[in-house]
Design brief:
With 139 residues, the chain is of the alpha/beta class. It has five helices and five strands; from the N terminus they run E-H-E-H-E-H-E-H-E-H. The protein is globular.
Length: 139
């Protein structure tokens, strides 16, 4: 099973704000038995986990996935946790796909441009890329 980790801002957002795009990605691959989508929002409520538990679980998830799907499309956010997950992916030699907002400066950051195998303006463009290109990695 090819595991895809969903990285993206959660801090300061309402639960439905980050769950909506998680559900969208999960729904896109519904019925596909090739990809397993790993959401950091799964299981116990994030509000009940300690900072240490969140850190260790997310790091372990990144380490055990085959691709990081980083949604950085909400403008004017810091994406501290997401940036950590992307750095871990680099450390573990796991490819990263980033979705960004066209008007946000994040797309210009040299670290993100260097680490990402591809950057997209929309979730659908990134999902189509996974469905059409990444799937060839596993065949």
């Amino acid at each position: 099973m090819f595991r895809i980790y969903l990285a993206g801002g959660m801090e300061g957002l309402e639960k439905n704000e980050y769950l909506n795009w998680h559900k969208y990605v999960i729904g896109y691959f519904d019925g596909c038995n090739i990809f397993e989508i790993v959401s950091p929002a799964r299981g116990r409520s994030v509000e009940t986990l300690s900072s240490r538990e969140i850190f260790l679980r997310d790091r372990n998830d990144v380490k055990n996935c085959n691709l990081i799907f980083a949604n950085m499309s909400i403008p004017n956010r810091q994406y501290i946790g997401t940036s950590m997950e992307i750095a871990w992916a680099k450390e573990f030699e796991i490819p990263v796909i980033i979705v960004y907002d066209e008007n946000d400066s994040i797309k210009k950051h040299p670290f993100l441009k260097e680490i990402a195998i591809r950057m997209f303006k929309t979730l659908d463009e990134a999902l189509d890329y996974i469905d059409e290109e990444i799937i060839n990695w596993i065949k």
